[in-house]
Prior knowledge:
Radius of gyration: 19 Å
Strand content: 5-15%
Oligomer: single chain
Number of helices: 9
Number of strands: 7
Strand order of the largest sheet: 5-6-7
Largest sheet: 3 strands, parallel
Order of helices and strands: EHHHHEHEHEHHEHEE
Shape: elongated
Helix content: 40-55%
Amino acid sequence: xxxxxxxxxxxxxxxxxxxxxxxxxxxxxxxxxxxxxxxxxxxxxxxxxxxxxxxxxxxxxxxxxxxxxxxxxxxxxxxxxxxxxxxxxxxxxxxxxxxxxxxxxxxxxxxxxxxxxxxxxxxxxxxxxxxxxxxxxxxxxxxxxxxxxxxxxxxxxxxxxxxxxxxxxxxxxxxxxxxxxxxxxxxxxxxxxxxxxxxxxxxxxxxx
Length: 208
């Protein structure tokens, strides 16, 4: 999946939500808050708790992180309002599921990721999740990879790990997994790790 507008964090409605609660905040204030959020994410050893993440951003620009504002920033909204799947995702997952290929998600994310996948039409494809906020570690920690393969009942060598970070794929390969870097057309991420790459998920159908 990808964020509509290109930004994963904070959620796409962050600016509008803050402006609705704090009238004096400027666009530059909000841009600085987003930059602070990036710094918080970069410094974190595990996925930050959402309220703490938002509080750090708001307090950095002198905005009170009131309970009302924090609640508004995590209020339920349709996932399709801020996220979309790439066109090749559903057809590929459907084909893999039809072949009986077991699949797991290994993600640096919050515990609600399975619910988000359900809302985006991805529910039912995955047999297991290795989520950083649940396990207390992030990729490339071996525990992330091993949790997924063990949940599937498979040895590392029988698994194919796919990620849009070549470095994280290289880490999986070093642990004995097969790997492919997902580098779509126009993806700026360099493949300095030297791992095999694919440009569309449909290419997986020739590999498994």
